[in-house]
Amino acid sequence: MARGFAQSVGAGGRVRLRTLSNLRWLAIAGQSAALFLVYFALGYSLPILYCAIAIAVSGALNIALAVRYPPAHRLTNREATFYLAFDVLQLAALLYLTGGIANPFALMFLAPVVIAATTLNLGNVLILAGIAFASVSVIAVVHRPLPWPEGPPLNLPQLYQAGIWTALVIGIGFTSVYAWRIASESSRMSAGLAATQLALSREHRLAALGALATAAAHELGTPLGTIAVVARELERSLPPNSTDADDVRLLREQAERCRTIIARLANPEEAMLGATARLPLGPFLDDLVAVHRGEDIEIRVTLTPPAADGAVPEVWRAPELLHGLSNIIENAADFAHSLVAVEAGWDEQFLHISVTDDGPGFAPEIFSTLGEPYITSRPGQNALGENDMGPQGPLDEHEGMGLGFFIAKILLEQTGGVVKAENPSSGGAKVSIRWARGVIDGPQPPTQSEAG
Question: Was domain 275-451 assigned CATH 2.40.128.20?
């Protein structure tokens, strides 16, 4: 599902043809109703034939597209821009025939631009806004008279028409930028959350695999024990110089080895069982940092117990907690020069873990937006630019895309943690997470509901 979502927010595929076609049919119905009301019901004079031709061309385009493409066809940015540009020009033609910007329906210029702003990238939105701006400017100067009862035509003051033109231009510009910004943030957040669910599903699959290994260990233990007993009896019954003695001895040793491996898998303290296992805080952190230690990076784990004597908390190895903390430690190890300090402490109210590195710290230009998707300070990496609506490729290929800290923050908040990032005065970067006591070290594993 995540892969499909990522492909749908790429360069082609954010809007279906049927959506635009239905909107165009709605516009055709509204234009036809207005034309019928003004010409036949009110008796106003207007070039009915030319107006009908303009509406018919729009209907013919819809029919041609329905024949050419299936209803679920997704338009590329270029195709959607072309069809929306046609709608702008068709509306401009109708308004030219019916009074220009003095026609109250000139407000409808906003509709195609807003649709573009919520579905297309910024470049195409600006192209469409430019076409709308040019159309408004042309029909403000050159247009047929506004339909009116018989008598002197209605000539609005030039200053008033200039005000209408200004309002339309500002409205097109403001609504297009505002709608595009909101749609862009929503698209980025949706894609980021989809990547988070993908990462979390991997952790749950790993937890399920551990549970399956434990069940298999219990099931296989008995037959392997029987094999070992039979092999031992055979070994005793054979004479020392028998040609089969070595084979039976090897069979017994391998059976014992299999039992040892299965016993280790069945031990919840050594198997990765996600939310079904607990560890004291120290060993829990040691397990997390072990895979990130390298020859050039020292990762130091420090526990700070309270002044009063108290038992070391036992922490649930929930998938959200494992993946979130692992992401933060990995990120610190990537940027650290030589040292990553993982410190943990607790008291009667809170349990807290902090990860500090001696690297360059969080870049000032991203600090205010840290925790949002696709925010990264890695040089040369493929994070999204300001003009991109969403990722162009599969979400599971998010290395260097600025999703690591976002995913970690979301997952840790789901366990009830409060995440804070800062640049300490001593240098480097620091990420602190705090939980209320009993959330990750209570009698029950943390759940998403506790995060609220």
Answer: no
